[in-house]
Amino acid sequence: MRRISPDPYTVLAIIVAMFFIYYWHDGVITEGDSHIHELERKLATPLLQKTKHLYIDTELIDFLSEYERFKTYNSNVYRRIVRHTDDFMLLVRDMEKSVPNPGENYETARELKKGILNLFHSLIHSLPTDESQNFRIALKRLESLLNEHISAIYVRMISQYAKNPKPINTLTKFIYNNDPTGIDTQFNAHYDYLS
């Protein structure tokens, strides 16, 4: 049997690589811990401290904290946005646990989403004109964040119906994800957030 004898440069390269991987991994862990502390700090702010279910989505926490400056223009509406978003996340959490009537909860989630977007859109009337571009970007971002949850709820609802089929009766609610919207394909500046 032949023995392998690595040269000193190979041993040195392995040792340097191990130190590099150790310090890189330690930096990733430290960065993750600092992100958690940052989220805890954001949730402890006066605006978000009363929320109970917002912790589920860190991107929504970041969004509401990032655009908290809009609160100075209409604080009542912004507080309602935060409260409705917290209610929306409660519904998302309940749907993850499986609920008896997923179709009705899906419709409720869609109505909450529409209400949150309409509340957010109502802020435009009190914003200064230099914030209008930031507002449009924020509105699209909020809609995409909420749509991620709506899509996940829809998939869970369909799988729940597939696992536990029930006979069709007067309480059965058929839910379709492809209902008509206010989108005109010939007109590029359509506004589908009011649909």
Structural class, from secondary structure content?
mainly alpha
Radius of gyration: 24 Å
* Portion in strands: under 5%
The overall pLDDT average reads 77
Helix content: 55-70%
As residue ranges, the low-confidence spans are none
Report the sheet with the most strands, covering strand number, pairing sense and barrel closure: none
Overall structural domain count: 2
Q: What is the number of E strands?
A: 0
What are the key terms here?
62% helix, mainly alpha, 2 domains, 195 residues, flat
Descriptive notes:
With 195 residues, the protein is an all-alpha fold. It has helices spanning 8-43, 58-66, 75-97, 102-122, 132-163. α3 (75-97) packs antiparallel against α4 (102-122) and α4 (102-122) runs antiparallel to α5 (132-163). The longest helix is centred in the N-terminal third of the chain and has 36 residues, at 8-43. It is flat.
Quick structural gist:
The protein has helices at 8-43, 58-66, 75-97, 102-122, 132-163. It folds into two domains: 7-44; 50-166. It is 62% helix and 0% strand.
